[in-house]
Amino acid sequence: MPAPEASTQATIERAAALLQAGGVVAIPTETVYGLAASALDPVAVARVFEVKRRPAFDPLIVHVCGEAMLPAVAVGIPDAAYRLMERFWPGPLTIVLRKASGVPGLVTAGTATVAVRSPAHPVARAIIEFAGLPLAAPSANPFGRLSPTRAEHVWRGLGDAVDLIVDGGPAEYGIESTIVTLDPEPTLLRAGAIPPDEIEAVIGPLARGSTPGTDAVPGSAAHHYAPATPVRVVEWDSVPAASRSRAGWLGLRHPAPGYAFSRVLSPSGDLREAAAALFESLHELDERSLERIDVERIPERGIGLAIADRLRRAQASSI
C-alpha cells in the first residue's frame, strides 16, 4: 500500500496530472482532507463515490481557486455571494449556487444547484491551479465515518483505493466548511468552521435550514462523522462508575475520573481549539478498543454549533 507523499513541488505536479487524467487524489485542505477528482469528469466523480462507498443521493462540494474558475461550475451568481467570497474566500465557507451546464448531475445529486468553495490551504490551491480544473472533493474517508485531519487517517481508511495521498500536514480547522444558500433567502444549511454570526455580519440574518437527512446538502446525512466505537453525549457524573472503566471520555476542558482513557479538546475551553481537535481526538479514542466513547455536551454557540452537530450525527450512527 503506497504511503502518503510529502507535498513537494513534484508531488503537487503529479497530483495535478493524475486529476487531469481522471484520477482520484487525496488532498489536504484547511478543514479536513478531501478526496478529489475533476468536477467536470463524470467517470472520475463516479470513482469518488465508489472509493468512499458514498450514496449517489449525497452531493459533493466543488473546490475552485477563486472567482476566476466560477464560470465553469456556477451561473447567475447573486451580489450577496460575491460579498461572502470577498470576506471569506479563500476559506472554509461553501456557497450553494445555480449549477452551470457542464457540471455532471452526479456531483449535485441531480439538483439544479452546486455547492462551491475556494480552499485556503496552499497545497490544495496549488494542485487546483496546476490541474486547471474545479475539483469535486468530499472528505477522504469511508462514507459516514470520521473525517480525516491527517494524511495517515486517509491512508488507514482508504489505502490503495486512492491514486495518491498528498501529505500537507494536520488540518488547521479540523472540521468541515460552513454551508449557506442564498436562494430563496440566506439560509444556514450546515454549521461549520465559520460561525453563523460572522456570516450574518456580511449579509444579514440567516434562516436555519439544516436538518439531519436533508439529501440536497453535502454531509447532511443523519448518521455521519462517526467512529467505529459507539459515541454518546452525556454528563460524566450521570454515568455509573462501574461502566467507566470500559469506556473513553472526551471532555471540553477537563478529564473525567474512572474512565479507561480521557482526552481533552481545549484546557482553556476555546471552542475553535476544540473544533480543531475533535476528529483527531475521536480517531485516537477509536483506536483503543473501547466499549464506547462518552463525550461532554458542547456549548452551542459560535463554532460550538458545528461541534455539537457532528457529535449528534456520530451519536445517531451508534443507535
Walk me through what this model shows.
The chain has 319 residues and is α/β, with parallel strands linked by helices. It has 2 domains: 5-208, DHBP synthase (Alpha-Beta Complex); 231-317, 3-Layer(aba) Sandwich (Rossmann fold), CATH 3.40.50.11030. The protein is built from 9 helices and 16 strands. The chain has helices at 9-20, 42-52, 79-88, 122-131, 151-158, 196-203, 241-244, 271-286, 304-317; strands at residues 5-6, 25-27, 34-38, 61-63, 74-75, 93-99, 113-117, 135-136, 164-167, 178-181, 187-190, 207-208, 231-234, 247-251, 261-264, 292-296. The strands form 2 sheets. Strands 1, 2, 3, 4, 5, 6, 7, 8, 9, 10, 11 and 12 form a 12-stranded mixed beta sheet that branches. Helix 6 links the parallel strand 11 and strand 12. Helix 1 packs across helix 4. The longest helix has 16 residues, at 271-286. The protein is globular and about 60 Å long.
SS strand fraction:
15-25%
Specify the CATH class of the largest domain.
Answer: Alpha Beta
- CATH topology heading of the largest domain: DHBP synthase
CATH architecture of the largest domain: Alpha-Beta Complex
Major sheet summary line: 12 strands, mixed
Number of strands: 16
Count up the domains: 2
Spatial shape: globular
The stretches of 5 or more residues where confidence is low (pLDDT under 50) are 210-215
- Name of the CATH superfamily of the largest domain: DHBP synthase
Q: C-alpha Rg, in Å?
A: 19 Å
Gap between N and C termini? 34 Å
The total of helices stands at 9
